[in-house]
Backbone:
């Protein structure tokens, strides 16, 4: 987002390349992609949070969560861990060679962790599945929790 907004020094060439055809489409794409990434990241946190099991005092159905998280994890693994890494290793840069020097170092440092996103999402999905397959239904869980709290 810093690059597309023109705030990242050393990326003017890349910015001009990315926005060459239609500025509005370029901006919408980058901001839309950022919203999708932040939303899916937030939902991934739900795999390890209490609100991923009970949301507004209602149990979250586990099968849809597991299916969507697994498919998302596989998609992200394909896009960033396999496809992007293969492209980079074969000499194809995502920036088409327009970024150099410090800007390239910053860009690589910011994007390098994305290679782990898919495998970590799949690992979190597996942990969610493990945790939820032995979880009691929400009403039983609440009554057990009350017994523990009240000392019963």
Residues:
């Amino acid at each position: 987002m810093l690059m597309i907004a023109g705030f990242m020094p050393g990326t003017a060439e890349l910015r001009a390349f990315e926005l060459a055809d239609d500025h509005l489409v370029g901006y919408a794409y980058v901001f839309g992609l950022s919203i999708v990434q932040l939303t899916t990241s937030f939902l991934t946190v739900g795999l390890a949070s209490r609100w991923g099991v009970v949301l507004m005092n209602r149990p979250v159905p586990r099968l849809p969560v597991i299916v969507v998280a697994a498919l998302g994890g596989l998609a992200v693994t394909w896009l960033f861990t396999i496809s992007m890494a293969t492209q980079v290793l074969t000499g194809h840069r995502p920036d088409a060679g327009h970024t150099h020097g410090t800007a390239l170092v910053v860009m690589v440092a910011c994007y390098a962790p994305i290679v782990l996103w898919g495998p970590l999402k799949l690992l979190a999905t597996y942990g969610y599945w493990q945790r939820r397959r032995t979880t009691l239904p929400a009403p039983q869980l609440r009554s057990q929790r009350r017994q523990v709290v009240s000392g019963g």
About this structure: Residues 76 and 118 are 5 Å apart (CA to CA). Strands lie at 54-55, 58-59. The mean pLDDT is 80. The first strand starts at residue 54 and ends at 55.
